[in-house]
Amino acid sequence: QPEVGKAMRNCYSLPGPDFTYGMYIHKRDGGVPEALGHWDIVKARPRKKKVMPRDFVTMGRGAVDEGCTTAREFALYYKYMDIRLKDKSILKYGFKIPPGMTFGRPARPSTPFFDIMQHRYKELWMEHQRAQTVVQHEEKKKKIGEVRENRTQFLRTHPLPKKEESFWHPQRFEKVWTPH
Questions:
Q1: PANTHER family, per this entry (predicted)?
Q2: Which residue from 85, 126, 130, 131 lies 20 to 30 Å from 68 (Cα-Cα)?
């Protein structure tokens, strides 16, 4: 029975103060002196030059420009003019980046604080709205003065093209019997 007001005792004995809980990872950590005195140097591996596949479309165009017409001439042209596809993964400028070039989106220009305090943007918006209402009012006045054309007036000004009547009829359609 546990004693009243006290926690129940654990049955296991704990290891000594030298024991490390968890997994021990061996690493070299000598602090600042080791960081300044011993540099970890990684040797660069020689870069393999990537061989791109042949660009047969460009070679074919070049062969036609040179006047090749037979399969043998095309084969000889392909043999001596080895044109390869360009690697798309390389930057547009190659490996050299222009000195003034920066990556990322350009920063927005800062909003003038003085214009915000004086409500300048509100005033510009109000002027724009007033100009729009004036233009709409003038367009409305023009529409009121106009008389809308109806179909008859439209057909008087734009007559339909006359159908040319054909006077020739096949004989078989001349005497058609119709039931009464």
A1: CILIA- AND FLAGELLA-ASSOCIATED PROTEIN 77
A2: 85
Confirm if 63 and 74 have CB atoms less than 8 A apart.
Answer: yes
Q: Note the pLDDT tens digit of each residue in 118-130.
A: 889 999 999 999 9
Contact 59, 90 (CB under 8 A): no
Are 82 and 54 spatial neighbours (Cβ–Cβ below 8 Å)? yes
Q: Report the pLDDT value the prediction gives residue 101, as an integer from 0 to 100.
A: 74
CB-CB contact of 63 with 78 (8 Å): yes
Report the distance separating Cα 70 and Cα 121, nearest Å.
Answer: 72
Both structure tokens of 168: 């020739």
Q: Between 71-80 and 56-66, two packed helices, what is the crossing angle to 10 degrees?
A: 120
pLDDT at 97 > cutoff 60: yes
Q: What would the two tokens of residue 90 be?
A: 């390389």
